[in-house]
Amino acid sequence: MSSLNDIDSLGEIFRTHQSFALMSHMRPDGDAIGSQLALGHALEAIGKTVYYWNQDGLPDSLKFLPGSEKIQRPPAEPIVVDVAVALDTATKVRLGDSCVHAASHATLWVNIDHHLSNPLYGDENYVDAKSPATGQIVFDLIKAWGFPLPAETRDAIYVAVSTDTGSFQYASTTAHTYRMAAELIDAGLDVGRINALTYDNHPFRRISLLRSLLNTLEMHADHRLACWEMTDATRMELALQPDDSEGLIDMIRAIEGVQVAAFFEELPEGRIRVSMRSKDASCNVCDVAMAFGGGGHALAAGIRMTGPLADAKEKVLSALEIALQQGGAAWNVLCKKLRMAYCWSINRPTWHRMMLSRLRGGHSIPKKLVIAAR
Ligand SMILES: [Mn+2]
Q: Which of 37, 77, 132, 152 could form a disulfide with 172 if both were Cys (CB 3.0 to 4.6 A apart)?
């Protein structure tokens, strides 16, 4: 959905309804919270009733955003609203059960996002995978609809896009992104102040975490793959908050010669969260993530999988090694069936060794393995 007609009809939905529940994904980042605040304050400025819900609430690191105190955990019982809006959320599950329940009386679900893997779960979907941030989509929509741009919206859009583009550095950043930033500055954004609040204001425990992560740093695939890990024990010992690790992966992605960085994190319930970043399109980490039930973007993707940590690491690292073969071509030429066979083989050492050696040698995978994996 991306034509002018679609933008107009989506605008009609926001004009003709009165109450909105704006939601974003669990463990929200700057783009998730920023998109909620940006759209919500524009809607409030035209007299709408807006609820701002996130299952995990507002991270401390984003409390400086004006109006952010409105971000609440969802109420236990559903609230009657006209429209539920999911922002920056690749799947409905990522909103969390309590958000989905609280918004279950909504008559219409709108899905606004920029994740390539988004399955279009809304009644109305506006998904633009080319946009570097959901915040930029919100900016474009607000402008196209002629909605006001209050200070809360202006600042939230800037932080949403800045944090999702690594401070306007990633390849997804376009001339349009910089023009948008210029328009926000023209509209009164205090660029020095907002960047200082976003990037020069970290709690000390984040640096303690960085020290701990550096002690686990590993290099693989001829130094083209860097990874580090965080155990649940470290999380408790350092009294970490979920957003303390936000963006740290960029430090190892930035190493000379590194193509892909991976961050393995043991979650309290024993599951493993994997974040992956690729330097360029020659290695698509979203493809690898999807093979393990995850998703995201070509250059930034994630997985939640079963542990223990060592197993998850071994599985994902060997898949990434394959993905890095021949400039990223190896994984891409694996068709869906072969990728499934690959994942199936991971828990079967003999099959897996055979598969890895065939792939590393540039050979095709034996048919009997694909058949066995069914
Ligand atoms: Mn985003």
A: 132
